[in-house]
Amino acid sequence: MIVCIAEKPSVGRDIARVLGATENKGSYIEGNGYQVTWTFGHLCELKEPHEYNSLWKRWALSQLPMIPPRFGIKLKRDEGIERQFETIARLMKEAEYIVNCGDAGQEGELIQRWVIQLTGARRPVKRLWINSLTPEAIAEGFRNLRDQSEYQSLYEAGLCRAIGDWTLGINATRLYTLRYHSQDGKRDGSNILSIGRVQTPTLALIVRRQEEIDCFKPTPYWVLTTLYRDTLFTLVMEEGERGFKTREDASRALASISGQPFTVTGVEKKKGSEAPPRLFDLTSLQVECNKRFDFSADLTLQTIQSLYEKKLTTYPRVDTTFLPDDVYPKCPQILNGLRAYFPLMDRIKGKPLVKSRKVFDTKKVTDHHAIIPTGVRANAMTEEEGKVYDLICRRFIGVFHPDCKFEATTVTGKAGELLFRAGGKHVTDAGWKALWAKEKGSSDEEKVLPLFVKGESGQHTPSVTEKQTTPPKPYTEGTLLRAMETAGKLVDDEELRDALKENGIGRPSTRAAIIETLFSRQYIRKERKSIVPTTKGKELISLIGDDLLKSAELTGIWEKKLRQIERHEYEASQFIEEMKQMVCEVVVHVFADTSNRHVSAQ
After folding, report:
1. Which residue, of 45, 99, 125, 505, has the fewest CB within 10 Å?
2. For residues 202, 204, 209 and 214, what is the CA-based torsion angle, rounded to 10 degrees?
3. Is 315 in the active site?
4. Are 516 and 298 in contact (CB under 8 A)?
5. H or E, element range at 266
6. Among the options 34, 180, 315, 570, which is catalytic?
7. Nearest-CA neighbor of 95 among 5, 172, 190, 189?
8. pLDDT for 115-134, tens place per residue?
């Protein structure tokens, strides 16, 4: 028998149907020469400290750092998991060969490899690697099974991540809890200072943003405008200047043009275009869902995972917005499957689909491509699934539409010696934007100016308005995800953001869980859409003097090394040694602190 192991029962059933295995044995399905079984996500985990050394069971500063000479794995303590593992182990030991059908990513590779290792099975292992769970994709994947050795570096990267998180998390959490928490006694969730390789730099981003807001002192400035033919013109200032720095200067400028005619000195029109937005990766989908629907990152991840398991969308845990070139011939068939969206396709119907390098670029795709619909007919969906699916379908249809074309108009005019400017925009061809309803107040709204002629002149109504500089905005989940993706750098340009992804903190698949952890640890809270740190979160970051623990850029460098391990560009053993060295430095740094600082009991 060929034994296939999937990551979830539902995925196992999908695979069994394609393989012709129909006999349900409870914990596996058999037939046609196959036995298809499954895990429930993580069945295994790294051993706890006391399982390496009995002295490590007690929380004591004298036992730090705790670094096992060799890391080991164990089965999670759960009756259902233990029963399922017994079945898996029995099947694998009798198998002709094993097919690892875990999710096609770093975490999926780690989950299944640990289970296979723990069974002790010594059978050949092949790897199923697919981008969607449609019957066609599964069948094609089984026709092209790969040897598991091809994914050794992916496993090593996942293992390094797990060991690194264990080494830093266990040691730093005990270290800071014992040294800085004001409450003694039993160690439970309420009085533990949780420190993590990704969660702590993320918390530091939020705390620093709040400090910038709290320390911000608004500066007043005065803006001179004038109303001419129902159009508001604004005084042209020197570059970098918002307005006048004093009321007196603004008043003098106002007085200098009062009673003077306003004369149009120039009318400039430029044609412009805006390309369709890129396809979604997981982070951009989470950002968009947070902005449009106020979905949390975790809710979006759960929803897109559900759509993937319903075969409606492709693999979700991706960090690329591109498709490989070999997907292009399949796109007409995918579009034909989106029957509910046919009214949006009139512009592209019957024409060859546009093949843009901003969409199709095999070099920009590693293991998985951007999230797109599969073209499978959509049946019952939850409200959340419907909203996310709609975004993905419209974004996919949009990339085959022409650019949005517009005409930008700039009108300049003078009153006295002062120069004023007004701008307008008129869309001449909506292109891909026709797929989206205009939202009031959005930047897409047209601002059509009256027809002005150079040299015309007339009366106007000048005025001075006092304004103030504004503080930075608190993070929302969407903007925090972007900050994690770029290690805290504020970047709007998509190409530059792509370059910074290498150094982002966390992975697309883990960032939602990190944010949820910060909420559960009571380090952050929500105020409407904004994320703000709690007193506990602010105090924790204030007493961490070591940048190794809280620097987003340093954490981004470690993330880059993990990606380099995947690409055979960096040795896993070197990463582990560096993590061990880092933990030792953190312990020494805290031991040297002679202050009496503490985090308040919460």
Report:
1. 45
2. 150
3. yes
4. yes
5. strand 262-274
6. 315
7. 5
8. 999 999 999 999 999 989 99
